Automatic annotation (TrEMBL):
Keywords, in A-Z order: Membrane, Transmembrane, Transmembrane helix
Membrane-traversing stretches: 21-43
Domain Oligopeptide transport permease C-like N-terminal: 7-48
A Pfam cross-reference name: OppC_N
Protein name as annotated: Oligopeptide transport permease C-like N-terminal domain-containing protein
Cellular-component GO terms for this entry: plasma membrane
Phylogenetic classification of the source organism: Bacteria, Pseudomonadati, Pseudomonadota, Gammaproteobacteria, Thiotrichales
InterPro entries: OppC_N (IPR025966)
Superkingdom, taxonomy of origin: Bacteria
Length: 96
């Protein structure tokens, strides 16, 4: 029986591919990462200066949890910008 030698990376990658939970978790993390960096680019207004005062009138009609704040800022975009900052800090901390 000839056992062919595998590098540590190859062995870890083969074991990783067999674990379905780990592959699914990687997919979820990559999806969140891409959403955090891509979705704010498609936001039509300058996120940090945009305030819609008329949204107070619409707030009761749009009572979705991630829809709008009382001053008209989109909560979902705020969450994604916060995630983007968190990923940037994590990358810098990993590099340092």
């Amino acid at each position: 029986m000839a056992n062919k030698k595998q590098s540590l990376f190859q062995d870890a990658f083969i074991r990783f591919k067999k674990d379905k939970v780990a592959v699914f978790s990687l997919f979820v993390i990559v999806t969140i990462l891409v959403a955090c960096f891509v979705v704010p680019w498609f936001y039509p207004d300058n996120y940090f200066s945009h305030i819609d005062l008329y949204s107070k009138l619409r707030h009761h009609l749009l009572s979705i949890s991630l829809a709008l704040m009382l001053i008209g800022r989109d909560v979902f975009v705020r969450v994604l910008v916060g995630g983007q900052i968190s990923f940037e800090v994590a990358i810098v901390a990993t590099i340092v």
